[in-house]
Write a sequence for this structure.
């Protein structure tokens, strides 16, 4: 008898659990996503989620969104996420995502493939104004998913005092790999290395582009990681490491190239335009010059990094979201962001004005015409992380072996 | 249930069970069952909502192709069988080698942390348990202190202590040792030791063959220098907690047995190994189990400290699970890793329970304690 009641009780519990689970299920899953180009529209206010680099960026975005909100009459709130990836994922899982958010090239494919994103690119009024290479970065399955927010490129940063002290002039700015190696050797002294960079693909990849390679083709549909050009690039980097002309930031005890440069552990580094902010706030006394990276056998080359303004497929007010994004990518707003936190506008029409305002950083923007993006295929960020972990030991390992395994991993993503 | 958990003498009829049988039927105890359920309901509901349902959801996710959008139970999520598990365990790709690497790192972490923290906490407990020690209270608090500090705070402290120019390296420099770049040094300790005696590359049968995408040579490479810093940290922070458990157990031991052994002429060393330690077996089991579970779940140090760097040598399954789910949108794989981890922990706990079981004393041992042997031994001594 007693055993009987127990069975009954546990049966009841199981049924209750099943009911609770199915209740969960029906709770989250509303009707399937709206597709077919028709935007949702309602009077609901918007949530804008950003992964901010600091107070300056949060304030600039908040102000820009507030001014749009005032003129459009639609409420909007900016949330600066602590961990953007995680908070976005939670929103998507609950089907209550932020309406507009920062989206990196690395996460685009993942969210686009599971249907979280609205592919609104073709409805942008200013679509043709964006740099074509950036548009390519955010094109998935032939559709432009989101509007590039801004972008950054890598160039060579030189410490002016070290440069002068080594008896070098502006005529000596390196134009070729050999010249880079030579000046780096000249600039190396006790406790200071000529060139200190972060030991990762996101920096050394610039050499690959200069040699005519990259990990994947421009549209991330073909893996080209173990091409001769890439091997040549890593061979060159390895040679500089073994010469002592170049060291990785981690090996001199710095967190990234900019820190090593600011502390003068290195006389040169390869970084993007974000370094201006870091130098201003952390090392205001270091004088430096930005020059284009040297040319490789395939001419000029560098890497570019960008984010875009994603709009959620589950947003109840996509129409307003699109309107907000158009405003945030307009010339005046982008120049405002450039002033506030040192980014480069993603639209071509703002270029000349930006160059006038920031003549010292012109090489960064000039690179827009020849810079290449990082692979965007789903899972690529994992493969790059794996490559980075191996590049850390480049000094003692074989470039071809490293790139072969990356090639294998990238090919696996395309299957 | 009752029948299985509390064995009864054979032949006991159900009628003989006495009052228990009447529990649900009526009489003075009528309604007890209902109020029993009523009183346990809050806990059952809380456990159900926050534990059972999420676990069942995660289990389903690990068998599905859920992409992180909407409910995992909605109609457009499909059952994919063991696909997520096979990608991790035998896919031949990055997912497999990442999991292998994470497992390798964690195995070494367990091998170092569990025995060392248990030994250290036992030693500390014996020290602070001595009646002779002055200021026992102070030492107990001091040793326990790291355990009550948040692991995030300690991790940050550790990053400073073990930086290239940090305190640890400066102390090492006084002794003429050039300390490594702790949290940026991915080389394995055992491989470091081997290369110091001139062995750079392993034999082909170790380097050519691999398990979970990691070559046997790498499996045997030992924890990286970076992981070693975490190992030291884990021992530092947890031994205080376990010391407390041991102290409690030691204070429960009656001094009679120890005194009896003393009268029999057992040395302090012998008394510890033969008298005190066997009596601590239940506590030892608790400490080892808690240590083992904690070690397999190491996450917050990695998340706040190194995020798996350098060269993935501090990647752990728990962190990898988080990374695959939240950063790479591979939710099924993330959930699958979590369940594999669960199986590993359960398996290890069972194994350890089996090793620490109360063994029957062997004949040889028995003889040593028998009266004649003791008398003979006495005779020899005379």
């Amino acid at each position: 008898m007693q055993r009987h009641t127990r069975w009954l009780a546990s049966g009841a519990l199981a049924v209750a659990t099943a009911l609770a689970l199915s209740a969960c299920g029906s709770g989250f899953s509303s009707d399937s996503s709206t597709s077919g180009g028709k935007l949702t529209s309602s009077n609901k206010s918007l949530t804008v989620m950003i992964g901010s680099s600091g107070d300056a960026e949060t304030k600039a975005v908040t102000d820009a969104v507030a001014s749009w909100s005032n003129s459009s009459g639609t409420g909007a709130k900016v949330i600066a996420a602590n961990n953007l990836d995680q908070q976005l994922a939670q929103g998507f899982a609950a089907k209550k995502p932020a309406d507009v958010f920062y989206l990196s090239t690395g996460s685009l494919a993942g969210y686009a493939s599971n249907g979280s994103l609205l592919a609104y690119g073709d409805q942008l009024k200013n679509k043709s104004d964006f740099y074509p290479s950036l548009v390519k970065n955010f094109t998935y399955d032939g559709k432009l998913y989101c509007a590039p927010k801004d972008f950054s490129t890598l160039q060579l940063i030189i410490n002016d005092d070290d440069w002068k002290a080594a008896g070098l002039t502006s005529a000596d700015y390196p134009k070729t790999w050999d010249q880079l190696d030579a000046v780096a050797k000249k600039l190396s002294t006790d406790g200071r290395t000529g060139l200190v960079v972060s030991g990762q693909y996101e920096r050394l990849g610039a050499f690959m582009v200069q040699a005519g390679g990259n990990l994947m083709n421009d549209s991330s549909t073909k893996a080209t990681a173990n091409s001769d050009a890439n091997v040549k690039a890593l061979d060159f980097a390895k040679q500089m490491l073994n010469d002592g002309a170049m060291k990785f930031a981690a090996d001199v005890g710095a967190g990234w190239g900019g820190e090593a440069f600011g502390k003068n552990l290195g006389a040169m580094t390869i970084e993007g335009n974000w370094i201006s902010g870091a130098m201003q706030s952390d090392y205001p006394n270091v004088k430096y010059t930005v020059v284009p990276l040297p040319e490789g056998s395939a001419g000029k080359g560098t890497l570019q990094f960008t984010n875009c303004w994603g709009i959620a497929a589950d947003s109840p007010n996509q129409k307003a979201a699109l309107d907000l994004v158009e405003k945030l990518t307009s010339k005046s707003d982008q120049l405002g962001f450039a002033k506030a936190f040192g980014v480069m506008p993603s639209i071509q029409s703002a270029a000349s004005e930006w160059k006038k305002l920031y003549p010292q950083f012109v090489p960064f923007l000039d690179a827009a015409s020849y810079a290449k993006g990082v692979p965007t295929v789903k899972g690529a960020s994992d493969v790059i992380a794996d490559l980075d972990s191996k590049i850390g030991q480049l000094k003692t390992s074989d470039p071809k072996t490293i790139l072969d395994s990356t090639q294998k991993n990238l090919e696996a993503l395309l299957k | 249930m009752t029948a299985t958990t509390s064995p009864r003498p054979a032949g006991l009829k159900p009628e003989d069970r006495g009052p228990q049988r009447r529990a649900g039927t009526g009489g003075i105890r009528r309604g007890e069952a209902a109020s029993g359920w009523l009183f346990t309901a809050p806990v059952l509901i809380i456990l159900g909502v926050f534990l059972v349902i999420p676990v069942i959801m995660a289990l389903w996710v690990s068998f599905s192709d859920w992409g992180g959008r909407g409910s995992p139970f909605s109609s457009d999520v499909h059952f994919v069988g063991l696909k997520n598990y096979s990608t991790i365990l035998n896919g031949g790709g990055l997912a497999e080698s990442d999991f292998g690497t994470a497992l390798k790192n964690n195995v070494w972490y367990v091998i170092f942390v569990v025995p060392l923290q248990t030994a250290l906490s036992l030693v500390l407990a014996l020290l602070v348990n001595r009646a002779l020690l002055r200021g026992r209270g102070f030492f107990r608090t001091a040793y326990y202190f790291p355990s009550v500090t948040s692991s995030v705070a300690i991790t940050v402290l550790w990053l400073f202590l073990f930086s290239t120019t940090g305190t640890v390296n400066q102390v090492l420099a006084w002794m003429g040792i050039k300390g490594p770049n702790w949290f940026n040094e991915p080389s394995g300790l055992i491989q470091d030791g081997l290369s110091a005696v001139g062995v750079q590359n392993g034999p082909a049968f170790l380097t050519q063959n691999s398990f979970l995408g990691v070559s046997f040579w790498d499996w045997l490479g030992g924890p990286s220098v970076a992981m070693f810093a975490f190992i030291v940290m884990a021992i530092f922070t947890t031994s205080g907690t376990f010391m407390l458990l041991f102290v409690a157990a030691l204070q429960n031991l009656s001094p009679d047995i120890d005194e009896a052994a003393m009268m029999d002429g057992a040395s302090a060393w012998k008394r510890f190994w033969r008298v005190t330690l066997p009596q601590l077996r239940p506590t030892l089991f608790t400490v080892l189990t808690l240590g083992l579970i904690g070690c397999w779940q190491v996450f917050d140090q990695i998340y706040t400290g190194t995020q798996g760097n350098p060269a993935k040598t501090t990647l752990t399954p728990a962190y990898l699970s988080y990374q695959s789910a939240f950063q790479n949108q591979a939710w099924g794989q993330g959930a699958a890793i979590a369940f594999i981890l669960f199986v590993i922990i359960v398996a290890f706990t069972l194994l350890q329970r089996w090793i620490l079981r109360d063994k029957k004393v062997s004949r040889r041992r028995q003889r040593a304690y028998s009266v004649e042997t003791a008398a003979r031994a006495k005779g020899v001594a005379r």
